[in-house]
Structure formats: C-alpha cells, structure tokens
Q: What sequence folds into this?
C-alpha cells in the first residue's frame, strides 16, 4: 500500500497537479487497499478535521504580522541596524545579510519572504562590492533558513499541533540553534571575505549613529519579546500572541504614518493567499496521516528501528537522513505533516526528547528550502539575483553543507536545544 501511495504521489506531482490534489488522490489510492467504502466518510472528515485546530489560527496571524511589518517599513529599520552593527567590517554586507536574517526571523518566520526581501536589496549591493553573484545569492538563501528556526515558526506550530508539544518550549528551544546557524554563516562569510580580498565597507559608526539606528529599529525588536514572552510565561496562547502581535505592528505602523489602509489591505490579501495554500496542503496531508496511522505504519516503522533504539543519536541521524531526502522532493509543510506522526513513536521509543526531535525535524525541513530540485528559496534567490537556476543549483551546496553541519551539532549535543527551555521551567 505504502509503495503504491508513494508512486501515485510522484506521478501526479510530475503531471503538474496542485499539491493538495496530488495528496488527496494519493489518499484515495491508499483507501482502495484498505476499504474503498471509507473514502466518502473519512476523506472529508479528516480533511476538515486536520485544520480544525484552534492553535493553528496562530499561523495566519504570524504571517499577517510579518506582512504588516514589511508594509510599515519596519523591516527596513532592522536592516539599517544590521548595517550599523556589522556593515563596517571586511565583507560587511555579507554579515549584514546574516544579521538581518536573524532580526527578520524574530518577526517574520518565513524563509521565502526573507530571501525575497533581503535578496532584492542586498544581492545587487553585494555584487557592487565584489561578491560573486552565486555567493551573494547563496548566502541570502542560506541565511534565510534562520527564519523558521528562531521564533515565531510556522513549522514549530504545526509540529506542536501534531505531537501535543508545548509551543513555548519549542520557541525557546529554537533560539540557540537559530543563532548557531547565523554564526556558522558568518564564519563562512569571514573566510570568503578574506579569500576574495573584499574591501572594508566603511568606517566604524559613531555612538550617535548607533543609537539612532537602535531607536529606529526598537519597535520591530520588541515584537519577538511580545511573541515569545507572552507564550512562555503563560500570559497568552500562541493564537492570542499572534493576534496581539498583529495589533501591535498595525498600531506602530499607523502611528508612524508608514502603514496606509491600501498597504494594510494588500497585507491581508497576501496573508489570505499564503494561508490558503498552507491550509489546503495541511488538510490533505492530514488525510494521509490518518490513513497511515489506521494502517499501523508508524508501529511497523518502530519495528524497523528496533535494533538501534538503544542509540538515540543514531536514530536521530537516520530520521534526519530520511527527512532530508524527502524534503528534496516534497513540499515542506506536507513533508512535516506526513513524517512527524511516523517519526514520533520511533523517537519516543529511543528516549529522544520531543522538543529535541521537533527542532531537528524543523531544521531538516527548513534545509529542504535550499536543496535542489524543489527548494523554494533557491528559485527565489536565483530570480532576485538574475542567476540561471542551473548555476544556482551548483553553487548552493556549500551553504547546504554548513546548515547540515549545524544540524549534526544539534543532534550530537541536545543540551544546545534543551538548555533554554529547561532554564525557564519547560522541557528537561
């Protein structure tokens, strides 16, 4: 049954069907093996049940908050602060690219939006300062992976809804891995800047200039503390935190006279478009997830891993390999929805902390955004840098390798993931 479903999915994707339809057709193929009479009852029930979860309302709210920040010009203030902090160093624009991604991650959480926003501004500037087009585009795509790791994260909300894991713990657990990923790309940029003999971009900024940039970016910098702090300390739920963030960003934009009603409406339309696509994929994936659970595929998967269940690191490495390969050929949300219910029993049997598993899967799924042939960030980076997609495919692999190295470190040292949640009374 599983092989038939996999073949059906690949065939229908290659035929160009919308992803959620390909998933639904795949589910129907699976039901034909189990009980065709269940199709009319279980497909609609699981399709709507998969998205009828209150915590998932946080997803469109966080997307809207990020869109409003872009419309209100707050993201530009974050980039200005990043330029003041590191722009004067050798290879400064590369550092600006990474630091801006860290700032964006705390208010947007979308790698694709990060690649588009930063790439259109920084890639042309980096080319003028001597960076190769391939490196500038690759660094933009690579550093955008920080977005879904540092909270808020759509992937983490989905994982939490599937596993009943605390969203607050996951958000806290993503902070250090996200910063570690940023540090890794900054080290990579350090070596590149010296190998390419890039010039020093400018003079060290004065204290007055730094203070001006900090004050300008302060409204945007407060948003992550509203999001994470409210959830972690139990003041608000993730959904309420998203609504509060939207209200805060909208108020700041309107008071600063940067957010017009037309821009507000455009942000709403873009949020509705993106949310609709995500929820359709989630709903269709939920049907397949239920079907696989009904067929006891997760239990069979645990049996396959039985010989190595005493070695949690090895289990995580194998699960990561499966996720990495799957992510290369499947859309990220659907991959997360399908793999998590199968992986969770295996990880629990091996004694892996669910928060640790969540970060490992999230980073794995995120890396898929820059891996050929399906990585969305690769296509966006190629478009904004006017680089041939084949050339982009060739040049992206060093950045994939850096991200995989960070993933390996997180697998080998769980304390990097679990320390912050444990410190604040969450996951141990």
A:
């Amino acid at each position: 049954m599983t092989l038939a479903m996999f073949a059906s999915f690949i065939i229908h994707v290659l035929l160009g069907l919308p992803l959620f339809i390909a998933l639904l057709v795949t589910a129907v193929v699976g039901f034909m093996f189990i009980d065709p009479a269940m199709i009319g009852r279980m497909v609609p029930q699981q399709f709507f049940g998969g998205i009828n979860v209150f915590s998932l309302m946080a997803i469109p709210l966080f997307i809207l908050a990020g869109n409003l920040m872009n419309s209100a010009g707050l993201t530009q203030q974050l980039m200005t602060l990043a330029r003041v902090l590191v722009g004067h160093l050798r290879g400064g624009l590369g550092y600006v690219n990474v630091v801006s991604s860290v700032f964006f991650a705390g208010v947007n959480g979308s790698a694709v939006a990060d690649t588009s926003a930063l790439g259109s501004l920084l890639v042309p500037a980096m080319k003028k300062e001597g960076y190769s087009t391939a490196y500038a585009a690759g660094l933009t795509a690579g550093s955008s992976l920080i977005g879904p790791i540092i909270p808020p994260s759509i992937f983490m909300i989905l994982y939490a809804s599937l596993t009943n894991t605390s969203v607050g713990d996951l958000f806290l657990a993503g902070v250090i891995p996200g910063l570690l990923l940023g540090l890794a790309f900054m080290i990579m940029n350090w070596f590149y800047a010296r190998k390419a003999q890039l010039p020093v971009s400018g003079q060290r900024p004065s204290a007055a200039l730094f203070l001006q940039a900090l004050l300008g970016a302060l409204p945007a910098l407060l948003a992550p503390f509203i999001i994470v702090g409210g959830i972690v300390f139990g003041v608000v739920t993730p959904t309420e935190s998203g609504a509060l963030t939207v209200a805060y960003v909208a108020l700041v934009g309107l008071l600063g006279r940067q957010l017009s009603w037309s821009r507000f409406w455009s942000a709403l339309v873009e949020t509705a478009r993106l949310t609709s696509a995500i929820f359709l994929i989630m709903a269709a994936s939920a049907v397949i997830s239920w079907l696989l659970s009904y067929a006891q595929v997760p239990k069979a998967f645990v049996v396959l891993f039985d010989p190595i269940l005493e070695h949690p690191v090895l289990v995580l490495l194998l699960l990561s390999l499966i996720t990495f390969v799957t992510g290369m050929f499947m859309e990220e949300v659907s991959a997360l929805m399908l793999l998590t219910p199968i992986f969770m029993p295996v990880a629990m049997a091996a004694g892996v902390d669910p928060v640790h598993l969540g970060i490992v899967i999230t980073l794995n799924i995120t890396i898929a955004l820059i891996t050929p042939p399906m990585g969305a960030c690769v296509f966006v980076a190629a478009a904004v840098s006017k680089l041939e997609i084949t050339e982009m495919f060739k040049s992206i692999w060093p950045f994939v390798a850096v991200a995989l190295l960070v993933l390996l470190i997180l697998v080998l040292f769980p304390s990097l993931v679990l320390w912050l949640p444990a410190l604040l009374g969450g996951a141990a």
